[in-house]
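Re-run with default settings, no changes from the original entry. Doing this only to confirm the output is reproducible before filing.
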Amino acid sequence: MFVYADGRVLIHPDTASGITEMQLSTAGIEAVRSGEVPADSFVVAPWTIPTSAWANSVAREYSSDLSAVCPDAAATQAGTLPALQDRLPTAVRRILAGTITTFAADPYGIGMAPNLDGAVECWILTRSQSIAVWEQSRGFEGLGGPDGEFVSGRHDQGQWGTLIDPDGSWIGFNVEPVLPHGGFVFWGG
């Protein structure tokens, strides 16, 4: 869960339902800043937050214009991200060119991914670039849309897929929405 200075409240539950967004009112922002509404109440006691604290308490899907496209742990053990990128199909390499971003270790210990120690490198892509990469991939059965395809209207949750390198090896990756602070989450919190 993230509470931003502009009053946005983003929640990523420990389910596959995706990230939801709500909006605090000006009074709600001040109540959080002053401690009248403790920040942990969003998680442990949301029913204690007064209705006047909300400009809009109806949760809606979070929509990000950017995605973090991250190789899975098996792929990153095989080498650096630039080396991995060189193994991808030409059409995918063109999309990914110049988009590598390094994310620092998660200071909260919950927002990145299990089994990641230290920094992680991912490609940061626009929504249309993410869809173009996905169109070159195979979705994992049971994840994403029916038959594993990318759900292009859903940018509030991660989706998993694979790319095949010229040698026929599978390279697993996931597409995660980038949050307003520039980070992303794999699992809830």
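Strands lie at 2-3, 8-11, 20-24, 54-61, 66-71, 100-103, 120-126, 138-139, 159-164, 170-177. DSSP finds six helices and ten strands in the chain.
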